Amino acid sequence: MTRILKGAMLAGVAALGLSVAACDSQQEQAAENQADTVRDSAEATADAIEETAAAIGGTAESSMDAKADAVRATGEAKADQLEEKADTMDRAPG
């Protein structure tokens, strides 16, 4: 019985230590949330452009689809920058 309790306590302490080590700072979490928001916004904007392009049709559709792709790529790049910045917060001393 004592052996089981010691094992359970050790597992609990180990899990607590891992969860504390894995915690993001509030600043890091805010940066990651901002990256998600940027990515979602770019995706929604690109989707709206594509829907409009499909409704218009013709030659405009092709150029609007290209614009939607550019919006997605720009949003993704910005989100990636924000996530990289957040990741450096993990490594920053303090």
Structural notes for this entry:
It is a single chain. This protein is mostly helical and 94 residues long. The protein is 91% helix and 0% strand. The protein is built from 3 helices and no strands. It has helices at 2-22, 26-56, 58-91. The longest helix has 34 residues, at 58-91.
Would you spell out the secondary-structure blueprint of this structure?
Layout (H helix, E strand, L loop, with lengths): L1 H21 L3 H31 L1 H34 L3
Helix pairs in contact: 2-3
Arithmetic mean pLDDT: 81
Instruction: Give me the count of strands.
Output: 0
List SSEs in N-to-C order. HHH
Low-confidence stretches: 16-21
Instruction: Estimate the helix proportion, in percent.
Output: over 70%
Structural class: mainly alpha
List the total number of helices: 3
